[in-house]
Amino acid sequence: MSYKILVTGGAGYLGSTMVPELLNAGHHVTVIDNFMYQQASLNHVCHQPSFQVVRGDVRVEDNIVPLLKKADVIIPLAAYVGAPLCDRDPVGATSTNHHAITLMLKNLSREQRVIMPTTNSAYGSGGKNNECDENSPLYPISRYAIDKVAVEKELMQHPNAVSYRLATVFGMSPRMRIDLLVNDFTYRAVHDRFVVLFESHFKRNYIHVRDVARAFLHAIGRFDKMRGQIYNVGLSDANVSKKELCERIQKYVPSFVIQEAAFGKDTDQRNYIVLNEKIERTGFKPTHSLDFGIQELIKGYTMLKNTKYGNV
Predict the structure, then answer these.
(1) Which pLDDT tens digit goes with each residue over 194-208?
(2) Domains: count for the chain
């Protein structure tokens, strides 16, 4: 079945990978984006009649409400993503990550469907044995995670909503982000040949950007069974520490030197093991491994060496 889908922030890291997949699946897709990074990441889909793009700000009611009224499905990707960017502009972060979602929800009918990415960084330092499922207590540390926790509570009051607590995303995308952890460490391996790790035993979960796109298509196709639920979305075999991640990269870049700091703390205190069985029981399984992503990134970084490919 074909839907009219509105993707906010659709020219970003997730959206520029997801939008082509939505179009290829036969949906009509409208993107609203403020193009704050001057990206041209959707050039390759402009030839498709079922694609429309609007330059606008999701925080402005006159921009977003007319688009909401025409959509069957809303995928709100527009966000200030990551702790450093949110700390640099806290007003912009909260107004985009929280207030804009409140505005969106206020203007939706009960029949309209919302599939929204939140974040598993809300688990903070984890619970017992650092293992976290969807029922685990939330201990958000960063401003980004705190806003996402607050907005998820509002989102789940909507009768047709799904929340995806995404693991840390990795992989090449038309609107690249080098600042994400796997992407960052692989970049350092390729171009710097070394990295210094603070609290190298800290673990987190990961997911490839193309599998994120697949997860949203999965929810669209199984919405009646998945509505009203929160799902962790990550690779179950990729709950790895920072040191283990670097050792994976080192397999493909043998000259990569890993130095563990003898003292000092990581500003990002996330440390958890995420359980993804709930979404797996719906039939979703990621298809892109951590090793696949590392090898893909190494090829990509042969072409890229530019600090504009990040959010900080």
Answers:
(1) 999 988 999 999 999
(2) 1
